[in-house]
Structure formats: C-alpha cells, structure tokens
Amino acid sequence: MSDVDTRPGAILKNNLWTSNPIFMQVLGICSALAVTNLLTNTAIMTIGVTLVTGFSSMTVSLLKGFMPRKVRMMVQTLIIAFYVIIVDIALKAYLPEISRNLGPYVGLIITNCIIMGRAEAFAQSNGPVISFWDGVTSGLGYMGVLMLIAFVRELLGFGTLFGFQILPESFIPWTIMVVPPSAFFLLGFVIWAGKSAMNRKGAPA
Amino acid sequence: MSPAISPFALFFASIFTSNILLANFLGMCSFVSISKDMTSSNGLGLAVVVVLTVTTGVNWAVLQLLEALGLVYLRFIVFIIVIAAVVQMLEMIIDRVSQTLYMNLGIFLPLITVNCAILGVSLFMEIRSYSFIQSIVFGFGSGLGWWLAIMALSAIRKKVDKAPVPAGLKGAGITMITIGFMAMAFIGFSGMLQVQ
Q1: What pTM was computed for the model?
Q2: Is the ipTM of this complex over 0.85?
Q3: Which among A46, A197, B137, B166 would be 20 to 30 A from B48, CA to CA?
C-alpha cells in the first residue's frame, strides 16, 4: 500500500474500494462474520468497529512520539482494548438487547486485525486528524461488505430486513442462510465479485 | 451457576458441533493465510491447542479474582495481557526444554497473541459461566477442533491449487467457499449434541 497519498479523498477511495480491508486484504473477518445473520446486529457491530478503529488510530498517532518501539504492539493493544471497553459498556447501558445478541463478539473487536493493521500501517507515520479519517473510512469499507452479506442472509433466511417483514408470508425461508456456512459462501462470492471488477479495470491483481 | 453439562460432552461438542472456527468464525485471520502450507498449519494448530488450554485455565482463575474485586469490566484488557504473558512464558519454556520443538513452534507463538480464537474462548467461558474443569476441557477441545479444521483445509487447498479456478476467485475467494463446504459438513454433527 502506498503511504504517499494522504489526501482525504484518496484515502476514502483507497479504503472503501482499491484496498478494501475485506475483499482485498481479507482482514478482520473473525469477529464479525458471526453477527451477519441479522442486519441490526451487523449495523451496531460495524459501527462499533468503525468508531474503535477511528479513535484508536487517532490515539496511536497522538502518542507515536512517546511510544518506545519495542513495546508499541502492547501499547496499541491496550489503546484498542480501552475503546472496546467503552463500546461494550455503552451497548450494555443503552442497547442491552443487542449487547446480549452480540455476546462475546464485542470483546473480540480487540483482536480485529483491521484496527491493529491501520494503527501500524498508517497512524504510526501520520497526523492524528488524518489517521482518524483513515480509521473511519477503513471501518466503513468493512461495514459495506458485512452489511451486504447481512442483507442477503436476513432477507433470504428470515424474510425480513432490520426486523421488518419484507417478503410475503408464502416465502419459504432458506435454512442455509441462517446457519454459519452461508456466511463463508457469501463472503467468497463478494471477494470474487470485488476482485473480478478490479481485474477488469487493469489494477494489479 | 455453571451449566450442568458433563465435561465429556463439552469436549466433543467443542471439537465437532460448535467448532470454534466453523461455527463461531473465530481465528480466521491466521487460518486463511497459514493454511497454504501443511507443515506450518500443523505447527500453528499444535501451538493453538497448548495456548488455548493454558490461557483458558489461567483466565478462569483471573476472572474469579476480578469478580471478587468487582472489576469485571476490566476483563478485556486483563484477558489480553494474560494471553500475551502466557504466550511469552510458553515461548521461553519451550526454548529451554526442547530446541526442536522451539524451531517448529517458535515462530507461531507470537502470531497466536492476536488470534481471535484465544480471546474468544475466554470470553465464551465467561459468558457461559463454566466451572474450572469445564473451562479447561472447553479450551482443549476448541484447540483440537481448530487444529482439525486447519489441517483439513490445508489438505484441501493442496488439491484446489491444481484445479482450474476463475481468476477472481483464486486465493481468498475459493478458500472461503471451501471453508463454507467444510462448515456444512460439520453441521452434520450438530444432531448429536448441542451446547450453547
């Protein structure tokens, strides 16, 4: 990845499309695939990831002058854990229902490789404001793909979107969409579509 | 208030019916990149088994302490630190005890600290309030399940490498679809026992 281009527009395009964290780098899928069966859960989860990525990138960037290189991984992890705890407590307080659905996956945002990846690759060598922007756009790129998967899974698995009935009663839900394998299949297809579209444009594969 | 489930049933459930990778999507990052090579998969799988068993046990004890002190909200930070410390210690012990094992496992141990499966199992242990024995068994079983899954996948990928795959699907795409089929196979076990 080129760290040269730090204009906000270029970062947006890069993080949303040309080096999208999911279909170009296959990062951070662990903590989020499990919640893609319902759109509401996915939305809350990815908003959490976006906020954590943005703020932890900003903090890492602010502290980069004070961090000894040897312990920087540990410090970054602690910064990330700090923001995840805030997200967890906020969810428990305001959205207890969703917090229960997400279960352990909120805590697993800590080990989401995207956050650490952005902190290492971008925030280490850039200013706080642009790092925050970089983190947020990475989160949005991630959100886009997961929302797409959740959309298909909820629509075909339950006939609903955000909990509202969309398809007629006569629609028979696809059981496959409720169980875990469908998330893998859909992610495979999304990666396929994304990569093919990019190859066609002549970008390096 | 630990759930009334025999450790034996829990052990099999954590390997097959609720496989940490195929049913809970944990530990995917290293799973996709490492499974290209069978020898590395084996090493990483073995390391995951050891680390999962030890960290789940230690985290169980730490969690009791945090509960006694009323500091449960700190658990994410504490779990991460415990995992990092255990991994570091294991690395030193293995280095002392067996050089050959160190050569095989050494490079994988640091990778494990950021493996979601390790933290995930600790968090599941907390949410389902397992007893000590249940936690250890659950950690060990989950590790074995992960090892089984990565070995199976790397063997399948060897075959897939020789198959004609559309350009855009090469690499990550076809791997995801392969994992999907594996997950479907594992769902077949779910009639035997259920743990949630």
Answers
A1: 0.82
A2: no
A3: A46
